[in-house]
Design brief:
By secondary structure, this protein is of the alpha+beta class. It is built from 13 helices and twelve strands.
Length: 359
């Protein structure tokens, strides 16, 4: 049994924009080309062209990362590409996000906001997390990684602009000061047992004066922490521990072994060794993330207005733009039913006519 941690959520697939920018803040960033020497276009946004080459290049970048595609397909439970042909719905989702990101970029240009190296560095970890972790992120080309990071940085900067509390570092410090207790960290150890009876027996030994680390090494079923005397390190409130464990960790007294806590992994005996709030410089990155996240409602309201006001045109090859409130998106074209000579059947109904080699 491993430590009581939740797995990272699977990476979000390219999909329609539920509450638009609220989803954008956690969705996969995509490459946008404002203009191109290629005369064909995939869409236009307030006169800005998203070229066909940009869309096809985006699909090629995605197609090179087999690990990411497998994760997306496992979530959608359907293939996104068959014999080099991209599913029309997937293509329209990619283009939908390109359009939304183009609107974000245009807004930041009007505000004269450009991501700094510090902004890009701050966005890099978030970009990795949202696509499924560092291994998946590393499966993309360097140029596409840069695109992902830049798009996350832009959404973060837009969030701070909407908060109107000064530069990101200033807003993050203000958030930290106003939500001081939210940044508390607890240094904990635990002993994991399979049953309530086993937990009660171990608790009795500890109450009798036996050393916590020694008992953990002897009886804990958590093979990761048992050799370390049950030590799980120091964890903040924004963690991936099971909720029962996390709640107890920040509720029970320091230095006292609490009553057994039941979770999906078994029964935990928890010892909180210390609990305090680190100084701002130790949690500045977390404070920045939480401050940006606090603008979620403002971001969503901005997106509703911005997308509805934008003049958007989509190349009929890729579908039509459906301006439908919070669910505005590119609706893929309905493929005509055709019968291939000697095939005895119809052509697939859900594939875009654009074939893009996976790279």
């Amino acid at each position: 049994m491993t430590a009581p941690q939740r797995l990272h959520p699977s990476p979000p697939a390219h999909r329609r924009f539920p509450r638009r920018l609220a989803a954008l803040a956690v969705g996969l960033a995509v490459a946008v080309s404002a203009c191109s020497s290629v005369s064909s276009y995939a869409a236009t946004v307030d006169g800005t062209r998203i070229s066909t080459g940009s869309l096809e290049g985006e699909l090629r970048d995605l197609g090179r990362n087999d690990q990411y595609l497998k994760l997306v397909e496992s979530q959608q439970q359907a293939p996104v590409r068959t014999n080099g042909v991209w599913d029309a719905s997937f293509t329209s989702q990619v283009l939908s996000q390109q359009i939304i990101y183009d609107i974000v970029g245009q807004d930041l240009s009007k505000r004269k906001i450009v991501p700094s190296p510090a902004d890009l560095a701050a966005a890099r970890t978030a970009a990795m997390d949202r696509v499924g972790g560092q291994d998946v992120f590393n499966g993309f080309t360097k140029s596409y990684q840069d695109t992902l990071v830049r798009r996350f940085a832009q959404v973060s900067l837009l969030s701070f602009a909407l908060l109107d509390q000064g530069p990101p570092d200033t807003a993050a410090k203000a958030y930290y000061d106003a939500h001081h207790d939210d940044f508390a960290q607890a240094c904990v150890s635990h002993i994991l047992l399979a049953s309530q009876d086993d937990a009660n027996k171990a608790k009795a030994r500890l109450d009798g004066g036996e050393d916590f680390a020694a008992v953990a090494k002897e009886v804990s079923t958590d093979t990761a922490s048992a050799p370390k005397g049950g030590d799980l390190g120091c964890v903040g409130k924004q963690n991936q521990l099971v909720p029962e464990f996390s709640q107890a960790m920040f509720a029970q007294p320091v230095g006292v072994v609490g009553d057994p806590v039941k979770s999906q992994f078994g029964f935990h005996l928890i010892l909180v060794r210390s609990r305090d709030v680190p100084p701002y410089d130790k949690v500045a990155a977390e404070a920045r993330d939480q401050a940006a996240a606090s603008a979620r409602d403002k971001l969503s309201a901005w997106a509703d207005e911005a997308v509805n006001k934008a003049k958007i045109s989509v190349n009929p090859k890729y579908g039509t733009w459906d301006k439908n409130g919070a669910q505005s998106r590119v609706v893929p074209p309905q493929a005509p039913t055709t019968t291939s000579p000697g095939s005895g059947g119809s052509a697939p109904q859900n594939q875009t006519p654009t074939t893009v080699a996976p790279g």
